[in-house]
Amino acid sequence: MEISSDSAFGVVTGAGLSSLGDPAAVRQQPHEAHEISLLLKLTNLVAVVVPFAGLILGIVMLWGWGFSWIHLGILVGMYFATGFGITVGYHRLFTHKSFETSKFMKATLAVLGSMAVEGPVFKWAAQHRRHHQHSDDHDDPHSPHLHGKGFKGMLQGLWYSHVGWLFDKDQPKVYSYIPDLMKCRVLQWVSNTFTLWVFVGLLIPTVLGGLLTMSWTGALFGFVWGGLARIFLVHHITWSINSVCHLWGSQPFRSHDESRNNVVFGVLGMGEGWHNNHHAFPTSARHGLRWWQIDTSYYVIRLMELVGLAWQVRIPAPATMEAKRNR
């Protein structure tokens, strides 16, 4: 395993490409402290919890008729498969270069990430690199802190950071953040065929539901739970990293923004909820930096490394982490 002290990744601006992994390459805007009110936190909590509660209530009410152990297995299996496509593939591999792997594994992870229906890999990675360069400042694509004061500004910030930003037009030259990725023919192909993989991601649970129950009704419910409900769940948890993890949680490291570690989304988000850790050390393949911080995405990367499918796995050295710790 490669131990790395790098804490940033290079991006492209009008001046050209900075080298990946060079801490001096990222020029972050000066961060202004944001006072996070209790009302803002409580409103965000309600907005996040209610949809989860609705999904669980629907499962309970439909158990034995529209939902069963088969549908639960399809839902969970598709959730982890497409979720790891985002966390391991889109995020840690393609956006942050936190490890290296073969072309076949790159294609596999890019396809699984596409099935999560969060956008083509090129657009996702470009927006996320932009987020890191301008986190919680004016050019951040989804900060909850930049929408004015008062109750109205608070609600606008929560809506915008959670889902509203998805409806914005692409920023000019947003793809200038990913020239390294755009040179990869495998990723070009997967990104250009995004719609195909969305369809495949809906077809798989439909076919599984039909075959496992030997019925058209089973196929329909496979589509509903392993397709539509799974997409909702993956999206809602991903969006919660953008909103919840910039409002709720701890900040053990200096990160020049409001990123926070949140234990709930550390678990539900497959390790992505250790968000302050991640913003302090963006190129780290491991986000759960303490032994008790569950990070299933890193466990996948570590397993890949053990069987020879991943190499150059980057983790910050203990001295680097200690130097950046908040006192």
What does this structure look like?
This protein has 327 residues and is mostly helical. It has one domain. Helices cover 55% and strands 4% of the residues. It has 13 helices and 6 strands. It has a two-stranded parallel sheet. α3 packs parallel to α7 and α8 crosses α9. The radius of gyration is 20 Å and the shape is globular. The N terminus is likely disordered.
Helix content: 55-70%
Number of distinct beta strands: 6
Provide the domain count. 1
Order of helices and strands: EEEHHEHHHHHHHHHHEEH
Structural class: mainly alpha
Identify the strand order in the major beta sheet.
Answer: 1-6
User: What is the 3D shape?
Assistant: globular
Estimated share of beta-strand residues? under 5%
Low-confidence stretches: 2-34
What radius of gyration results from the CA coordinates?
20 Å
Distance between the termini: 29 Å
Largest sheet report: 2 strands, parallel
Mean pLDDT: 83
Structure annotation, total helices: 13
Short description:
The chain is 55% helix and 4% strand. The protein is mostly helical.
Structure keywords:
single chain; 327 residues; mainly alpha; two-stranded parallel sheet
